[in-house]
Structures are given as C-alpha cells and as structure tokens.
Amino acid sequence: MNWNSVIVQAVFWSAATILFYLAGKRLHRRRPGWWTSPLMATPLLLIGLALALHETYGAYIRQTHWLVALLGPATVAFAVPIWEQRALIRRHWPVLTAGMLAGSGTAMASAWGLARLLGLSGTLQLSLLPRSISTPFAMTVSGEIGGVPDLTAVFVIVTGICGAALGEAILKILPLRSAMARGALFGMGAHGAGVAKAHGIGSEEGAIAGLVMVLVGLVNVLAAPLLARLL
C-alpha cells in the first residue's frame, strides 16, 4: 500500500468536503432558499467531483471517516441546549413529552408505511425509519435496529431539506401563534435544517427547535433497543 497516496487522497477529499460546505454556507447567506442549502449543495458537488475522478463511495468514506467520527463529540455537545433551556423544560414538560411522542410516532409510522407501500427491502425500511431524527442520533438508532447508518444519513438530509422548505409554507396555513409551537414544528419535522430555519424566524423559535430536536433524538436512541425487538 502506498501510504503517501492514501494520505494525499484523504487530505484532498477532506479538504474538498469542508470547502464545498463553506462555499455552500456562503451561497446560502447570499441567496437563502432550500435549493441553496449546504446540506443539498455539498453532497451534489461531491458526487459530481467523485464521478469526474471515477472515485467510489467506499473509497471516499474511508478517506473522510474522521469527519464522521466527529458526530460523537457533536452528540455530547447536544447537552448544552438542554441545560440552557432547563427552565422551559420544567414549565412545559407535559406538552413537550406529548409532542415528541406524537411526532416521533407519526414520523416512524409514515416512513414505515411508505416503505412498505413502495415494496422496499427490509434493510431499506429499517434505514428509513429514523429519518426524522438528527444525524448523530439517527445513525445510532439505525445501527441498533438493523439498518444501514450511512444510508440513514442520506434519508435524514433529504428529510431535513424538505421539512425546512415545507415548514414555512405550513406556518402560513396553520394558526401557530406561539413561539413554542412554531419552533417545535421545525425541530420535530426537519431537525438540524429546521433549527436553522427556525432561527431565521426568531431567536426563541430557534432555541425551542434546537431543544425539541435534541430531546427527540435522545428519546429515540433510548427507545431503539425496544424498537429493535418489536421489528
């Protein structure tokens, strides 16, 4: 094995991933919209580059695995918004609990029903199930229940982009006047992308969306072993 070549390729693909993401963020700030989201632009640019260089996904993920490993510390960092919003959790825990359970149940049931309707394989069904959870939690749940974590990450990104795009339209239809309701809508339905969108609406909406996203992820991770037995 030529270690110099391996190192050069790892540096190249890591740098390309980071630079494409930073460029996507800059573009999104100039032209806000779901079509300019870094979550959409970065994968498309990387796919185009990989096709041009005849690179495989397996080789790419091996060379950028350290970026995936950073999801671990990111998961631990999710404890920060929970601590910061502890007073809100104490005041509204019954509503938050009911909303998280209803939202998670609806998301999983709709994913499972759609997968069965389309005749997807068992592995694809299990990979699709945690699509409405933030990526670090979704990949953990997917591994626990027998899905493919890398595939689940793709479903999570697509769900986030679609949820953020549709969420604003839904707000115009539904009479959601409180910041909690608007923030919870984005945090539950579009996780990370939804949190970014909620922050654009208001700081309180953004804080609540982040809190709901984290709590939903934790609840689903804790429930994953039970879900694996049921499935």
Description:
With 231 residues, this protein is an all-alpha fold. The protein folds into two domains: 67 residues, no CATH class; 155 residues, no CATH class. Helix content is 84%, strand content 0%. The protein has twelve helices and no strands. Helix 7 packs antiparallel against helix 8, helix 9 packs across helix 10 and helix 10 packs across helix 11. The mean pLDDT is 83.
Concise structural overview:
The chain has helices at 3-30, 38-53, 57-63, 65-69, 71-77, 79-84, 86-117, 122-128, 135-145, 149-173, 179-201, 203-230. With 231 residues, the protein is mostly helical.
Main sheet, how many strands, which sense, barrel?
none
User: What string gives the helices and strands in order?
Assistant: HHHHHHHHHHHH
- Please give the domain count: 2
* Low-pLDDT runs: none
Number of strands: 0
DSSP helix count? Answer: 12
* Overall pLDDT confidence: 83
Cα-based radius of gyration, to the nearest Å:
18 Å
- Strand percentage lies at under 5%
Shape: globular
* Helix-and-strand structural type: mainly alpha
Helix-strand layout with pairing:
Blueprint: H1 3-30, H2 38-53, H3 57-63, H4 65-69, H5 71-77, H6 79-84, H7 86-117, H8 122-128, H9 135-145, H10 149-173, H11 179-201, H12 203-230
Features:
mainly alpha, globular
